[in-house]
Amino acid sequence: MNMPYKPQAVEGTAHYTELSELVERLKQEHAELMQVLLDMKEQSIQAEQEHDKGKARGMLVHLRLWAMAFQEELNRHSEWEEQELYPFLNVYFHKHNRPTIVPSLWMLEKDHELAMDHLNSFFRAVHALKPDSDAMQIKRAGAYLTHACRILIDHLEKEEQFVFPLTERVLTDIDYLFS
After folding, report:
1. CA–CA separation, 30 vs 120, rounded Å?
2. Which residues of 113-136 are buried (b: 16+ CB within 10 A; e: fewer)?
């Protein structure tokens, strides 16, 4: 996001500083989450395409541990967004008699829930794998993770397309207020 020049007075305001910190944290965490998602998706596709069932199963077990750690990090990030970022934006836009951002956030939450459903299906599918599992069961398990990653990648991109223009608007309003 290219932020326009901000006058010195604005940079010192509490709201500008708070919002800038929120936006920077969002950018940093999204970049980290996105990289993990891209890597996990690539490895889950490799597991789906692996012809050696034992090797594919081992890859999926490893991915299951990785995905569980990722889910914890994603939950922490989502809680932060819901407790700090979204309330800040919702209060700001509600105070200005603009349409609420709650419906848009609701849509993003539904995407998140769908991805979590696929991730949980992946966990169950990998847990159910046995040494004699057939190739279809292995491919299905990998496909759950691949699909969860695709949904979450899209979710992060949509969230940025939604949130960054809102934060730009707030910063622009603060600019006008203090210039």
Report:
1. 21
2. eebbebbebbbebbeebeeebeee
Q: Collapsing DSSP states into helix, strand and coil, what is residue 131?
A: coil
Alpha-carbon span 89 to 19, nearest angstrom = 9
Backbone φ, ψ for residue 3 (5° rounding): -90, 135
Q: CB atoms < 10 A from the CB of 77, how many?
A: 17
Report the alpha-carbon distance of residue 111 to residue 124 in Å, rounded: 20
Q: Which of 150, 144, 116 is nearest to 60 (CA)?
A: 144
Per-residue pLDDT reduced to its tens digit, 75-124: 999 999 889 888 877 777 665 544 455 557 678 888 999 999 999 999 99
Q: CA–CA distance from 86 to each of 11, 24, 163 (Å)?
A: 21, 14, 9
| Whether the model pTM is above 0.85 | no
Return the SS3 of 7: coil
CA–CA distance, 175 with 6 (Å, rounded to integer): 7
Helices H / strands E in the chain, number of each: 6, 0
